[in-house]
Queue: 2 jobs
Job 1
Amino acid sequence: KAGVTQTPRYLIKTRGQQVTLSCSPISGHRSVSWYQQTPGQGLQFLFEYFSETQRNKGNFPGRFSGRQFSNSRSEMNVSTLELGDSALYLCASSRTENYGYTFGSGTRLTVV
Amino acid sequence: GDSVTQMEGPVTLSEEAFLTINCTYTATGYPSLFWYVQYPGEGLQLLLKATKADDKGSNKGFEATYRKETTSFHLEKGSVQVSDSAVYFCALSDRQGNNRLAFGKGNQVVVIP
C-alpha cells in the first residue's frame, strides 16, 4: 500500500517569500502531523490535524500554518521565510496515537 | 512537559558487536514509546513500539522493553550489520489527547566492517 507522500522533495526559497508543502497520508489515516527537523533543535512538533481540524499545535510562530482537506491530505504554509526556517519538514500520518506514526520522506527547504 | 533523553554522542562499533542505545523519558500518565530509524536522505521509519509497562517491542533483531520503574526504553541488538548504520530516535506519545511525538536528540550509529 502507498506510504505517506510529501511534495516537493526539495525547495529553495528566498527570505521573505512564502512556501506551501503538501502531504498525502496513508489511505484510512485521518490524523496528519507535521514536524520540523534541524541539526540544532532536532525534531520538533509543528501541528496535528484530524478530520480537517487542528487538534494540537507546537511552539512555533504564527508564520507557520496548516490545513487539512476532506480527503485527509494536508498542507503547511510558512510565510515571510527566514534563514532559520531552513530544515527538513516531515509529515506523519496515523490511525491513533497508539498505533504508531508513518512518516514521509520529507521536504528539504532551503532559505537563501 | 513530556521529554525524552538519549545518551550523548555517536556510537561507533564493529560488525557483529552488541548495540545498546539508552533512552529515558519523563511523562505524566502512561505514554506509548517508540524507536524510529532514519537513513541518510530519508524520513523516519518506525522500528518498534511498546504501549504499556513491561511490553517488549521487537523488529529486525532490535528489541526494547518498556520499563516503568526506571522510565526507560533502551534499544538493543545482539549483532549489528553495516546496514544498521543510521540515526536512531527514541520517542513518546503521551496518549492524553495530545497526538504528538516528543523525540530524543537521536544517536548516529556507525557500524564498521
Job 2
Amino acid sequence: QKEVEQNSGPLSVPEGAIASLNCTYSDRGSQSFFWYRQYSGKSPELIMFIYSNGDKEDGRFTAQLNKASQYVSLLIRDSQPSDSATYLCAVNTVTGGFKTIFGAGTRLFVKA
Amino acid sequence: DGGITQSPKYLFRKEGQNVTLSCEQNLNHDAMYWYRQDPGQGLRLIYYSQIVNDFQKGDIAEGYSVSREKKESFPLTVTSAQKNPTAFYLCASRKGLAGDNYEQYFGPGTRLTVT
C-alpha cells in the first residue's frame, strides 16, 4: 500500500461544477495535510493546509479531513478552466521518522 | 522579494558529465529538500537537510550528491553514476524542524536533459 494515494484521473468537470479530489494516507500518526496545485511544467504551489478533523474553507476551496478514516479531500466550488492542473496531496508523517510524503497527484480538467 | 530560486531553468548535458543544480532561499528556512519529478509522476525525495553541514538521503539518493555549507544554499550534483538523470528537479524549503506542521515551499524547478 502506498503511503499517500490519490486517483490519478483525469477528473473532468464542466465549468461551474464542484470538483472533488480525494486522498488517503496510511500513517495514523500523521498530523498535517496539504494540497498543492501544479500547472503543467511549473512547480507545485500550496493552496490549502489542514490539521484538524472537519472542514476548512478558503474562498472556492474546502479541505476536509477525517483522521479516523485516514482520508483528506479537496473540494473546488464553481470550477473554472484556470483550475485545470494536477493537484498533489501531501502528508507529514511521523512513523519511521518525520517526513513529508506526496501523492502522485490527480489531474483535473475543467471544460468551458 | 522572499523566495526560492533555482538555476538554470533548463539544462542540457552530455551523458557521462556531472552537473550541479543551484538552489538558494532567502526565507530563513531551516530545512531544504531536493525532489525529482518524471512525466506524469509524483515527487520523489532525493536528499534533505535540516541544518547546515548536515543532510540525509531520501528515497532515490543513488547517483546524486549535495552539500549544505550555508543555510541559504543547497546545491545538488547529478553525477555520471545516475543512470537516468533526465527529469524535472524541484528544490523546496520549510521553516521549523522535524515534527512541526509547516508546509514546504517550492522553487521554479530545473528541467535537466541528458543525451
